[in-house]
Amino acid sequence: MLFKGNIAKDKRTKDLAKRIKPGEIAIIDHKDLDEIAANSLVNSKIKAIINQSPSISGKYPNKGPSILLDNGIFIIDVDFDLMDRLDEGDLIEIDEYGNIFKDEEKICNGLIIDKEKVESLIKFAYENISEELEKFIDNTIEYAKKEKGMILGDVVIPPLKTKFNNKHVLIVVRGQNYKEDLSTIRSYIDEVSPILVGVDGGADALLEFGLIPDLVVGDMDSISDECLKKSKEIVVHAYPDGRAPGLSRIEELGLESVVLPSPGTSEDIAMLIAYENNAELIVAVGTHSNIIDFLEKGRKGMSSTFLVRLKIGYKLIDAKGVSLLYKGSLKLKYVWWLFIAAMFPILILIYLSQPMQQIIKLLEIQLKILLNF
């Protein structure tokens, strides 16, 4: 057998990642596994995943499978409904061919996804991305016509307790490199004390760094109860028709909130709130801003994001990926040069001091005596 372990199952990967235990096997149903979901499973220290959908279909170059494999997590894709066949906590075994057993009885066979398979499909996806890009652009233009009211005043921003006027605003989304980027700009946060806005799970990211969100914006499906209770203000993002599925959760927790109906994503709404309330500068961490980001989120276009970014313009600084600029290690030779540069003025001052000049003269006399000069 290749390995065995107890299973935990859930069709919502992000929910499963919160409760699965180290060493267990995750059973998911997640087509084109995205980076955020993969990282959450890596952090859970699982042994393997069994996916009832293709982990990488070749439609676009999703990064999730590569992240799992790089962290030693096996991936087995199956064309079988294991959710109904297995119970939570069942002990299963998987052999080197991808066959899955329970109590020595074969349940189904699966396809082991290795690095060679992933690299092949990613290459195929990049070669065919132009077709997906064309659809994406067409959808963006089409929906931009429908959602143009976002920047033309149709979306009314309700009064909030949080005061943005002439202040810096940090908006955190749980996207690519968000933890690394938060670490990199921590000195900025400490020195400037910007208003902290968490978009759904991004609010928990702030909490992990010991920061209390001033404002939480989102549909409330990926934020912890603890974070909601600690946050100073909550804005529930509702559909344009006013339906707000996340509102019931806030009410069950006995918390106050403001409902904001609007098209687009919650991170777009967060930026719009800051802009319309006269924020001086908007710094965004982990936001979704390119086709791969949006395809991973299952969106077919980025009209609202395009419109909002067009409106707020120069006030937005996108800090996504800023940590990648600082990955180079400090070489020893640079440390020596820094030391020499720092010591040089000190040595000059010492040389020019009267006591040091006298010591140097004495040393010169002694040296001459020794050499019989």
UniProtKB/TrEMBL annotation:
Any single biological process term in GO: thiamine diphosphate biosynthetic process
SUPFAM superfamilies in the record: Thiamin pyrophosphokinase, catalytic domain
This protein's UniProt keywords: ATP-binding, Kinase, Membrane, Nucleotide-binding, Transferase, Transmembrane, Transmembrane helix
Start and end residues of each SteA-like C-terminal domain: 320-370
Domain Thiamin pyrophosphokinase catalytic, first and last residues per copy: 193-235
Keyword Transmembrane helix: yes
Entry-linked NCBIfam families: division_SteA (NF040608)
Protein name as catalogued: Putative pyrophosphokinase
Organism field: Acetoanaerobium sticklandii (strain ATCC 12662 / DSM 519 / JCM 1433 / CCUG 9281 / NCIMB 10654 / HF)
